[in-house]
């Protein structure tokens, strides 16, 4: 049996679908909730007899966890960023094989040696925080993250069998900062139905999407400044802010509206996947100003929608996509070109879409995940 330790997240349905297609009837999904929620408030309730919802930290969660891992041949932690997951793994017996699906925050947010913020965003964020909040987040928060990072490094020595990601550059960075004795394996949450991909009408494809959340790691303030210098004409600036830091969300909205007026479109409500895709498909340009790896799914969705992608060169996704052959652009080197915000040509869009079809079609991803899990299980 394969046990999945996950939170209630928007990707949950896709995880259940792909693992039930590959290993039907062999999975149990323990889904952690941070507070009791009515079904309609969940990102997407999964009605499946092998999906178990429990409140994180509750007695029922611990009892369920201990019960199901006794029967498991493999336990997959979908991220190890959360404190409770680090504790669960630390106190597990070593009878199970354990895989960790790397998200990025485990390395880039916990490791104090890595600074994810650019100057304007860092200054605006710190300045806006009340003194008591600043102390709690910037000082006590650092202490907590440092403690969690130390715990994660301990696990990497002998408690994690496999680190799973489709971006090898992230494992290289993980190895740089830790004594990682786990093996590397392949996994991604992203795939798509190739039949639905097409070139969209260029006349209706003109807007710009910036970032993926209300996290300061998006470095909104720095990219806003660059766009005000460059000018956006009458384009909409879509800014996804539906999850993350609520305080940071407010100051981003205030700044965006001050700089771009009616052209600023903060996205503060959770959208269905179709609604989100419709907005991406109306955009010709996607700008991700993260220094760290983040928002891979959104970036691939935008690639398959024919968007022009700008990423920072420090971001491992930039070097990864370039190495795979995708046409992507540098925030530092390419964005200030006078034609930077022009859409990709049809030929350039077709190049990226064809490559995405070859690498990330649902069947391709499904088969690679199956091969990887069979290797871990020794089957």
Describe the protein.
The relative contact order is 0.11. This protein folds into two domains: about 200 residues, 3-Layer(aba) Sandwich (Rossmann fold); about 170 residues, Glycogen Phosphorylase B (Rossmann fold), CATH 3.40.50. The chain has 15 helices and 13 strands. Helix 1 packs across helix 15, helix 3 runs parallel beside helix 6 and helix 8 packs parallel to helix 9. The strands form two sheets. It has a seven-stranded parallel beta sheet, with helices on both faces. The protein has a six-stranded parallel beta sheet with strand order 10-9-8-11-12-13, with helices on both faces. The protein is an alpha/beta fold and about 375 residues long.
Which radius of gyration do the C-alpha atoms yield? 21 Å
Write down the oligomeric state: single chain
CATH superfamily of the largest domain: Glycogen Phosphorylase B
Percent range of helical residues: 40-55%
Low-confidence blocks of residues = none
Secondary-structure element order, N to C: EHEEHEHEHHHEHEEHEHEHEHEHEHHH
The CATH topology of the largest domain turns out to be Rossmann fold
Net shape: globular
- Summarize model confidence as the mean pLDDT: 91
Terminus-to-terminus distance = 13 Å
In the CATH scheme, the class of the largest domain would be Alpha Beta
Enzyme class: transferase
EC number: 2.4.1.325
GO biological process, one term: enterobacterial common antigen biosynthetic process
Protein name: TDP-N-acetylfucosamine:lipid II N-acetylfucosaminyltransferase
Quick overview:
Its EC number is 2.4.1.325. The protein folds into two domains: 2-191 and 363-377, Glycogen Phosphorylase B (Rossmann fold, 3-Layer(aba) Sandwich); 194-359, Glycogen Phosphorylase B (Rossmann fold), CATH 3.40.50.
């Amino acid at each position: 049996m394969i046990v999945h330790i996950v939170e209630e997240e928007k990707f949950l349905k896709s995880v259940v679908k792909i693992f039930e297609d590959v290993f039907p009837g062999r999975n149990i999904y323990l889904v952690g909730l941070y507070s009791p929620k009515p079904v309609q408030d969940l990102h997407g309730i999964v009605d499946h007899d092998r999906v178990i919802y429990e409140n994180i930290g509750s007695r029922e969660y611990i009892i369920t966890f201990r019960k199901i891992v006794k029967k498991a041949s493999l336990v997959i932690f979908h991220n190890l960023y959360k404190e409770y997951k680090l504790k669960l793994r630390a106190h597990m017996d070593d009878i199970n094989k354990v895989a960790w699906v790397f998200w990025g925050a485990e390395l880039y947010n916990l490791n104090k040696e890595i600074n994810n913020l650019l100057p304007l965003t860092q200054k605006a964020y710190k300045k806006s925080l009340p003194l008591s909040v600043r102390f709690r987040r910037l000082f006590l928060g650092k202490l907590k993250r440092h403690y969690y990072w130390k715990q994660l490094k301990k696990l990497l020595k002998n408690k994690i069998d496999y680190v799973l990601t489709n971006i090898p550059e992230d494992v290289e960075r993980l190895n740089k900062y830790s004594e990682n004795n786990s093996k590397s394996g392949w996994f991604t949450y992203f795939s798509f139905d190739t039949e639905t991909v097409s070139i969209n009408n260029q006349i209706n494809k003109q807007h710009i999407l910036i970032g993926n959340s209300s996290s300061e790691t998006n470095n909104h303030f720095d990219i806003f400044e660059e766009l005000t210098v460059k000018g956006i004409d009458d384009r909409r600036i879509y800014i996804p802010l539906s999850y993350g830091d609520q305080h940071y969300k407010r100051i981003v909205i205030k700044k965006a509206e001050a700089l771009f007026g009616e052209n600023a479109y903060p996205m503060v409500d959770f959208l269905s996947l179709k609604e989100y895709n419709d907005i991406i498909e109306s955009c010709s340009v996607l700008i991700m100003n993260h220094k760290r790896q983040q928002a891979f799914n959104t970036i691939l969705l935008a690639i398959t929608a024919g968007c022009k992608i700008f990423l920072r060169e420090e971001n491992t996704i930039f070097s990864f996509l370039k190495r795979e052959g995708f046409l992507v652009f540098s925030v530092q080197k390419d964005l200030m070109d006078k034609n930077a915000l022009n859409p990709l040509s049809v030929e350039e869009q077709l190049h990226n879409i064809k490559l995405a079809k070859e690498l990330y079609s649902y069947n391709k991803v499904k088969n690679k995940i199956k091969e990887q899990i069979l290797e871990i299980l020794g089957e």
